[in-house]
Amino acid sequence: MTRKIIHVDMDAFYASVELRENPSLLGKPVVVAWDSGRSVICAASYEARKYGLRSAMSVAKARILCPQAIYVPPNFDLYRSVSRQVRSVFERYTNMIEPLSLDEAYLDVTVNFKNLPSATAVANAIRADILSLTGLTASAGVAPNKFLAKIASDWRKPNGLFVISPAKVQDFLAPLPLQKIPGVGKVTLAKFHQLGMFTVSDLLRFSDSELVFHFGKFGHRLYQLARGVDERPVESNQVAQQISTETTFDEDISFAQIEMPLMTLCTKLWGQLLKKNKFGCTVTLKLKTNSFRIITRSKTFSVPLHSQTHLVQAGLSLLERVDEDIKDNQFRLAGIGVSHFPEEHQAGQQLSLL
Among residues 104, 235, 246, 320, which one is catalytic? Predict the structure, then answer.
C-alpha cells in the first residue's frame, strides 16, 4: 500500500506565538532571541525575514541587516504548551506521529481515525483544527513519503497546503533545484555544480555507483531520492541520540586555525538545539586529520548546557584536551555534537562549568 504522509510545519512558530500574545507587534519585524550580540535567532517573523533574518543567524548580523527589529526573549515553557496543543490535534487523526521539533512533525495517515477519504482532507482538517485551538497557522505537505512531504510543506508557506500525488512525483522532482533536497549544503551543492548538476533531472544521468563515487553513502540516497524513493517509516517513538554539525574545510588547516570555525559550528549547533528544544549534558568534539584519522574528545556535565556561551566554552575546553603530538597534523574536518538529553523537566536547570 502506498503511504500517505503529511508533514506539518507551524508558520514562524515562536514568533507567531509571541505575535498572538502581543498583537501590537503585528506587522513589525519581530525576532525571538536574547538581545545580545553573542546570541542567535530562535525565530523571525515573516516581516523580519524580508530583511534576510532567519533562525540560527547571529543577533550581531541581524542588527546590521535590520536595525529596527524588535527583540522578544524566548519563552520555551509557553512554546512547549502550545506545541502540546498542536500534538493533541494530530492525535485526533492518527497515532503515527514523528515530531521533529516543537513546531513540525511527520504524520502517517494511510489510515486515519476519522475515516476521511484522502490525506489532503486530513491535512486540511488538521490545519483548521490547529487554527481554531491555538489561533496559529500551519503549512502542510502531502505526499507518498517523508522526503517529498517535507519539501511540499515549504512550497506554499505561510498558511499553505501542497500535495504531491504518486502520479505526479517525477513531474514535480525533475525541475527541482538540488539545494531543495534535505541534507544538501553549500559544499555538496558546489560539488553538484562542478559536475554540471543543477536540478534533480541532472541526477538521473548518473548511475548509483557514480553517485556513490562522488558523494559516498549519500550518493546512494541521492540516487533513490531522484526517483522519488524514500522508504523511511514514520517513527512515533523516535528518540534523539545526538544533535551535531560538522564542516569539511576547503583546504586542510593547522590545529591553531581550528578555534574560529569551531566557534562558528557552536553557533550553528546552538541554533539547532533551540529549534529542537533539546538540551544535552554531553558535548563531543570531532576532528579528522588529512590522513583521515578521527579524533574525538567528550565531556559530560551534571546538568544540560543551556546557553550558547557554555557550549562554546565546552567546545574550546575539549580542543585543549587534544594531545600535543596530534596538534602537529593538518586537519580536514571539525565537528561538534551534543547528546545525553535528560527529561524535559530537567532541561530548565542552569549549567555551571565551575
Answer: 104
